[in-house]
Amino acid sequence: MIGIIIQARMGSHRLPNKMMKSFYNGKGILECLVDRLKNDLSEIPIVIATTHKKEDDEITLLAERMNIECYRGSEDDVLRRFILCAERYSFTKLIRICADNPFIDISSLKVLINELKIRKVDYASYRLSNSKPVILSHYGFWAEGISLAALKKVQRLTDDKYYHEHVTNFIYMNESEFDLFWMTVPKFIEDSTIRLTVDTLADFQMAKSIYKYFITLKQPTIGDLLSYINKNEDYLIKMKELINLNQK
């Protein structure tokens, strides 16, 4: 079975409490993200994976209010958190979404889910023309698909804390060990200067402003967002500055 696991916690070093800060209509970015996923992917089970820390009680309460599951696990060993979460809910394949990305592209997500269903692969996602996985980019539009078996293999192959904190890095940094399927990011997106992942207060403030337009669209696309942002030079200047300051 395929399920969506949203990685979320309150303890961000660069922007504490960013999951619950008022983002749109009194809702935080995590709630806005879950709303969109529930509306467009109602047939796919959704679980929030957070930590045992007291501050993340708020995330558990939010999940209860939104009638979705919440799994609590290790703060530092995120790989183990994902494995145990997937096992708890009987996910043999999972879609990993970072809650930092309220503008996740639903159309691309549906394609990813379908590819993960029909292909016997360890990992599926999008990458740039230079082979850089989008999870390492600043765009904020895409998720990752992973098999539970692949995550368990990573757990067996390495004890490195870096790979246990960053769930999928070992997979795409050791491609010979896994069966990967890549889709290509459209060139018009890659050529753009766009940053919509939310890591800092400056990211948050800009994303909050753009979201007011985004949420009014019936079926928003990346193209719609690019068109809107390209008409606002202030956004473009700020995004370019933030990209330079926050290279992944």
Provide a descriptive summary of the structure in words.
This is Glycosyl transferase family 2. Pfam families: CTP_transf_3. The structure is a single chain. By secondary structure, the chain is α/β, with parallel strands linked by helices. It has a single domain (2-186), classed as Spore Coat Polysaccharide Biosynthesis Protein SpsA, Chain A, CATH 3.90.550. The chain has eleven helices and seven strands. The protein has helices at 29-40, 57-65, 78-88, 106-118, 148-157, 161-165, 169-173, 187-190, 201-214, 222-230, 233-245; strands at residues 2-7, 46-51, 69-73, 93-98, 123-127, 144-147, 180-184. The protein has a seven-stranded mixed β-sheet with strand order 3-2-1-4-6-5-7, with helices on both faces. Strand 1, helix 1 and strand 2 (46-51) form a beta-alpha-beta unit. Helix 3 packs antiparallel against helix 5 (148-157). The longest helix is centred in the last third of the chain and has 14 residues, at 201-214. The mean pLDDT is 95.
SSE arrangement:
Blueprint: E1 2-7, H1 29-40, E2 46-51, H2 57-65, E3 69-73, H3 78-88, E4 93-98, H4 106-118, E5 123-127, E6 144-147, H5 148-157, H6 161-165, H7 169-173, E7 180-184, H8 187-190, H9 201-214, H10 222-230, H11 233-245
